[in-house]
Amino acid sequence: MEKRILLEKRGRSDDEITELILDNCRSTYIDGLTDSFTALETLSLINVGLVSLKNFPKLSNLRKLELSDNRISNGLSHLMGSPKLTHLNLSGNRIKEFDELQPLKDLENLEVLDLFNNQVTLIENYREKLFQLIPSLNYLDGFDKEYVEAPSDEEDMAGSTTEEEEADDSCEESDDVSLAYLYNDNLEEDQEDWKSVESDYNNADEEFDSEDEEEEEGADNDAEDGADSDGEGEDEDGEEEEDGADEDDGGNEEGGAEAAASSAATEADTKATESAKSSSTAEEAASAGDEGEAVTKASEPEARGTKRKFQGTDSDG
Predict the structure, then answer these.
(1) Among 36, 193, 279, 317, which is most exposed with the fewest C-beta within 10 angstroms?
(2) Cα separation of 190 and 112, whole Å?
(3) SS3 string of the chain?
(4) Please, which residues have CB within 8 angstroms of residue 260's CB and are 6 or more apart in sequence?
(5) Worst-scoring range by mean pLDDT, 99-113, 156-170, 296-310?
(6) What are the distances in angstroms from CA 26 to CA 23, 70, 95, 159?
(7) Does the structure show a pLDDT above 70 at 7?
(8) How many angstroms separate the Cα of 188 from the Cα of each of 83, 118, 170, 191, 192?
(9) Each residue's pLDDT tens digit, 203-261
(10) 29-80: per-residue pLDDT in tens?
(11) How far apart are CA 279 and CA 89, in angstroms?
């Protein structure tokens, strides 16, 4: 328990601690908790394993004490050093006899007491006896004398806060701005800020919607343009294919014309060669005829001279 107390202090001095929670720290007796915690108002020792309240310190400002789920059977007189105690929870302990509760009558400010799950609650007229024993008691085991349920801690705190505010308002008047006015003012500002944020948000949504519509329209236009361009591309491809086919046909026709021209040129060369040969043959024949005629003509005078010689011979004879 002592180590747990040092941990919960967190470097603060004892007289600065107003609340100390030591639940489940496991100890059979009070250890490390002293009278130096003069400012302590709330102390919780739930499920620690206490069997006695011996060495419980005098805590003059203690108002709320949680001792549930321990093994306490007596020794409640050790709580008399905390006269301002208003809430005491002893549920889940081992108190059997009503006499063990007698010391509680000296706690003049005790308003809430919880003894649930103790054997003492089985005593006949237990509730009536306790309300008589402790005149300041308002709630026992969660209910008042008329079995009206006690308010929760939050409701109790809210009620005490309201009472304090009413007491302050009745005691003195001040020109200072009230918290309610500031709260309402801040609330109005928050509402205005929220409206501006909401309007900005709506405008942003409209802009996003318009942008989305523009993007969708652009996407549709792009799709249509793409379809048109694909159609034009197909047309151009078809035209190119037709032009290629025409060029191929033209090339084939030109090739055929060239082939025909070359064959015609070959035939013309052949004919020219034959005509040249025939002309040369004719020239040779002509030249041969001319030579024969020349020989004939040359032989005629010779023949004539010979004839004349014969004739002369004859005449001489």
Answers:
(1) 317
(2) 41
(3) CHHHHHHHHCCCCHHHCCEEECCCCCCCCCCCCCCCCCCCCEEECCCCCCCCCCCCCCCCCCCEEECCCCCCCCCHHHHHHCCCCCEEECCCCCCCCHHHHHHHHHCCCCCEEECCCCHHHHCCCHHHHHHHHCCCCCEECCECCCCCECCCHHHHHHHHHHHHHHHHHHHCCCCCCCHHHHHHHHHHHHHHHHHHHHHHHHHHHHHHHHHHHHHHHHHHHHHHHHHHHHHHHHHHHHHHHHHHHHHHHHHHHHHHHHHHHHHHHHHHHHHHHHHHHHHHHHHHHHHHHHHHHHHHHHHHHHHHHHHHHHHHHHHHC
(4) none
(5) 296-310
(6) 8, 10, 20, 35
(7) yes
(8) 46, 53, 28, 5, 6
(9) 655 665 666 666 666 666 655 555 454 444 444 454 444 444 444 444 444 444 454 44
(10) 999 999 999 999 999 999 999 999 999 999 999 999 999 999 999 999 999 9
(11) 155
131: Cβ contacts below 8 Å, ≥ 6 apart: 137, 140, 145
pLDDT at 97: 95
Amino acid at 131: F
How far apart (Å, rounded) are the C-alpha atoms in residues 203 and 199? 6
Decide if pLDDT at 315 tops 50: no
In which residue are the tokens 């304090």 written?
A: 164
Kindly state the tokens that stand for 212: 């989305």
Which position has the token pair 């329209």? 217
- State the amino acid at position 35 in one-letter form: D
